[in-house]
Amino acid sequence: MNGNNVDIDWESARLANQANWEDRVPVHEEAYGLDTFDDPAHLSDVVRDDLVAMKSFLPSGSLSGLDLCHLQCHIGTDTVSLARAGATVTGVDFSPSALRAAAQLAARLGIDATWVETDVLDARAAVDGVFDVVYTSIGTITWLSDLDRWAAQIVALLRPGGMFFIRDGHPALYALDENAAELTTRYSYFATGHAQQWDDDSTYVGDGRLAHTRTYEWPHPLSEILGALLRAGLRLIHFDEGRTLPWRFSDRMVEVPGGYAWPDAERDKLPCTYTIIARRD
After folding, report:
1. What is the pLDDT of residue 94?
2. Distance in angstroms (rounded) separating the CA atoms of residues 143 and 135
3. Distance separating alpha carbons of residues 238 and 54, to the nearest angstrom
């Protein structure tokens, strides 16, 4: 049954997740609309939204001239968008196929980027240099078991004064039954010490089927996410919660400008995303 709590070691879970994400790459290359990036002004919708949130916290109001490390970059659509916004970018991911696709996209577009294959929990050891911005966004940290280790990588990658940015699906959203006829909690909001096991041959975009269907995710409440960042030594400078998502979490969601949202009568009842901006002093 999907969402069951299971005991599994990190390495076994990581290998299963990696195989699943390897399968997603060709599906996402077809479904992400990569041809739209042939327009030199085109940015991904995710980055367009994130730039608005980041703007007032950046030294000159933009990424221009800044070194940026994008954790869990997947096939690089957001990474090349960040480069087009002015940053010198390094993309990090654990999927070799995703990084090959990202490198091919960047090369086709004439964008200079560095790509590093590593688990995000080992990023500091694998990535050269330090950065003005460490960035991660949408569909990321539920795949990680240890947020203290994650936060330690972020701090170690940042220059003093550097900024960390994350926007992701809200843990209250992930606790919902996506198939219920109304907002109904089904899964754990709080961390339980166990992974949630899922079996699904589809992905969040595209029609292709996946061969490696089993994945493992971990629930992380906001208190754990914020606590990990604060314990690592980051200073919180911005927090927000949003009503829209860039993907359709539930079939009941309706398309709205900027993504998907719950029907009007439910839209103010539960957040869909959270945004955290923190600084290394």
Report:
1. 98
2. 16
3. 9
pTM of the shown model: 0.96
Q: What is the pLDDT of residue 2?
A: 86
Sign of CA dihedral 21, 106, 43, 137: positive
| Distance separating alpha carbons of residues 128 and 125, to the nearest angstrom | 8
Tell me the CATH number at 149. Answer: 3.40.50.150
Question: By residue range, what is the domain housing residue 142?
Answer: 4-280
Euclidean distance between CA atoms 278 and 273, whole angstroms: 17
Q: At what angle do helices 147-157 and 222-231 cross, to 10 degrees?
A: 40
Mean of the pLDDT values across residues 109-137? 98
Count of domains forming the chain: 1
Query: For residue 43, which phi and psi values (nearest 5 degrees)?
Result: -125, 150
Q: How many residues are present in the chain? A: 281
Distance, CA of 117 to CA of 91 (rounded, Å): 9
Residue 170 identity (one-letter amino acid): H
The answer, yes or no, to whether residue 9 has pLDDT greater than 90, is yes
Q: Which CA distances in Å does 187 have to 40, 197, 244? A: 42, 11, 21
Cα separation of 127 and 164, whole Å?
Answer: 16
Amino acid at 106: A
Contact 67, 86 (CB under 8 A): no
Summarised one tens digit per residue, pLDDT across range 109-120 is: 999 999 999 999
Report the C-alpha gap between 135 and 152 in whole angstroms: 14
